[in-house]
TrEMBL record:
It comes from Chryseobacterium koreense CCUG 49689. PANTHER family: RIBULOSE-5-PHOSPHATE-3-EPIMERASE (PTHR11749). This is Ribulose-phosphate 3-epimerase. The active site is at residues 36, 176. NCBIfam families: PRK05581.1-4, rpe. Belongs to the ribulose-phosphate 3-epimerase family. The lineage of its organism: Bacteria, Pseudomonadati, Bacteroidota, Flavobacteriia, Flavobacteriales.
Length: 216
């Protein structure tokens, strides 16, 4: 996979016009389509599940990146893959048997990612980093869009990059939360490979142009 990727988050899309917004992303320079799944238990919010995934599967022409903010993600990863997920990321904090879940995702033909909440140290990934395809660093506390970016994320990107290199891992680094036109270039310069942007894209007067600018 190439780096410097933009993954607009459908959490900020207009769900009354989901087909329209997905078609806009298809036309745009967006690389991935980011899908935030929340269960109201692991995070204090509920987003959407399989009915919306059916719509995404039907209309999206992009790489579908599913972020599971749910307890017991191992129960659902196979169904998300069956419904078009190209990459499934699960939280370190929610996965009791993380190696088994990562292996299950990959054996079902998808890429596998592991997610860290802002307060979870990067060193917790030392025993899994060589196995995963992606590390998603949350730069806000998960559960709601539109939150302020946590500045310590830059330090965590550097730590993650060091861990990847020291373990001969090929994992990409993704950042999610508070990404906008003001910090995107700095995040890429710090070592991020994929940026998730929700409000910055969908609240823009020209979302396609915003996606283009995020990549510069």
């Amino acid at each position: 996979m190439k780096t410097k990727l933009i993954a607009p988050s459908l959490l900020s899309a207009d769900f009354g016009n989901l087909e329209r917004d997905i078609e806009m992303l298809n036309r745009s320079q967006a690389d991935w389509l980011h899908v935030d799944v929340m269960d109201g238990r692991f995070v204090p919010n509920i987003s959407f599940g399989f009915p919306v995934m059916k719509t995404i599967q039907k209309f999206s022409k992009k790489f579908v990146d599913v972020h599971l903010m749910i307890v017991e993600p191992e129960k659902y990863v196979e169904q998300f893959i069956e419904m078009g997920a190209d990459l499934v990321s699960v939280h370190y904090e929610a996965s009791i048997h993380l190696h088994r879940t990562i292996d299950l995702i990959q054996k079902r033909g998808a890429k596998a990612g592991v997610v860290l909440n802002p307060a979870t140290p990067v060193l917790m990934l030392e025993d899994i980093i060589a196995e995963v395809d992606l590390v998603l660093l949350m730069s806000v506390n998960p559960g709601f869009g539109g939150q302020k970016f946590i500045e310590n994320t830059y330090k965590k990107i550097a730590e993650t990059k060091d861990l990847i290199l020291s373990n001969n891992s090929t994992a990409l680094i993704q950042v999610d939360g508070g990404v906008n036109l003001e910090n995107a270039a700095k995040l890429f310069d710090a070592g991020a490979d994929v940026l998730v942007a929700g409000n910055a894209v969908f609240s823009s007067e020209d979302p396609e142009r915003t996606i283009e600018l995020l990549k510069i």
